[in-house]
């Protein structure tokens, strides 16, 4: 319960401004129907802007080029400018996800109180991570201070969101002591987060 409360507070205080999301519903020559922020359908012609500030730069029968917050995106029907993952809390208010660390799947706990992605040495060995080549660092866990190795993950994917060269720490303590692997702020700082009730949405600009 305390972890869920801390997550809510952290999201309220530290989450960046929520990005404008645009998905192309239909396109034709010089016009397009755009779904903005998942709620409003805007019918725009080339050069026009929506009330949300989304401008249609150009459009043909396959692709719409839209300007969103100063950046241009070429989108086909069904495409969005955002990669989005929606998670639902479990009975204890915790958010879990399947993360692919260097291409291999592992169930992780979302934790805004953790500085890094973290895991036990058992998890690292299963994922073929040579953690002993990393720098030794002390970390604080719920069960006290322990030694760990800092490593760099070539890729971390959660749903449609993929990040590269993400820092993580590996503890030589047993998985029983450290608990399940944690998806901490070395990943979460690079995405946008929004908590609504029992739903947590992660987004990243493509």
Describe the structure.
- Helix content is 13%, strand content 52%.
- The chain has 206 residues and is mainly β.
- Strands 8, 9, 10, 11, 12, 13 and 14 form a 7-stranded mixed sheet that branches.
- The two termini are 34 Å apart.
- The model is unreliable at 4-16 (pLDDT under 50).
Give the terminus-to-terminus CA distance: 34 Å
Percent of residues in β-strands: over 45%
Radius of gyration: 20 Å
What class, by secondary structure content? Answer: mainly beta
Main beta sheet, described?
7 strands, mixed
Q: What's the pLDDT, averaged over the residues?
A: 87
What is the number of E strands?
16
Order of helices and strands: HEEEEEEEEEEHEEEHEHEE
Can you tell me the overall shape? elongated
List the total number of helices: 4
Low-confidence stretches are: 4-16
Helicity range of the residues? 10-25%
In brief:
The chain has 206 residues and is mostly beta strands.
Question: Key terms for this structure?
Answer:
single chain, 206 residues, mainly beta, seven-stranded mixed β-sheet, 4 helices, 13% helix
Helix and strand topology:
Elements: H1 2-14, E1 22-28, E2 31-36, E3 40-45, E4 55-59, E5 63-68, E6 71-76, E7 82-88, E8 96-101, E9 104-110, E10 117-120, H2 121-126, E11 135-141, E12 144-158, E13 161-171, H3 175-178, E14 182-183, H4 185-188, E15 192-196, E16 199-205
Parallel strand pairs: 9-14, 10-13
Antiparallel strand pairs: 1-2, 2-3, 4-5, 5-6, 7-16, 8-9, 8-12, 11-12, 12-13, 15-16
């Amino acid at each position: 319960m305390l972890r869920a409360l801390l997550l809510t507070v952290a999201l309220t205080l530290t989450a960046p401004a929520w990005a404008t999301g645009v998905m192309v519903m239909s396109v034709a020559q010089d016009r397009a129907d755009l779904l903005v922020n998942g709620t409003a359908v805007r019918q725009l012609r080339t050069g026009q802007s929506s009330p949300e500030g989304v401008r249609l730069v150009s459009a043909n029968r396959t692709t719409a080029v839209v300007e969103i917050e100063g950046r241009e995106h070429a989108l086909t029907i069904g495409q969005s400018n955002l990669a989005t993952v929606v998670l639902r809390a479990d009975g204890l208010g915790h958010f879990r996800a399947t993360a692919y660390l260097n291409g291999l799947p592992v169930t992780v706990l979302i934790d805004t109180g953790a500085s890094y992605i973290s895991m036990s040495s058992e998890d690292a060995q299963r994922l073929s991570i040579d953690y002993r080549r990393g720098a030794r660092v002390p970390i604080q866990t719920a069960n006290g201070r322990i030694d760990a190795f800092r490593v760099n993950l070539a890729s971390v994917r959660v749903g449609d969101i993929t990040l590269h060269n993400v820092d993580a720490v590996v503890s030589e303590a047993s998985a029983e002591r450290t608990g399940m692997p944690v998806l901490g702020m070395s990943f979460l700082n690079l995405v946008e987060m929004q908590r609504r009730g029992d739903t947590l949405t992660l987004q990243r600009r493509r």
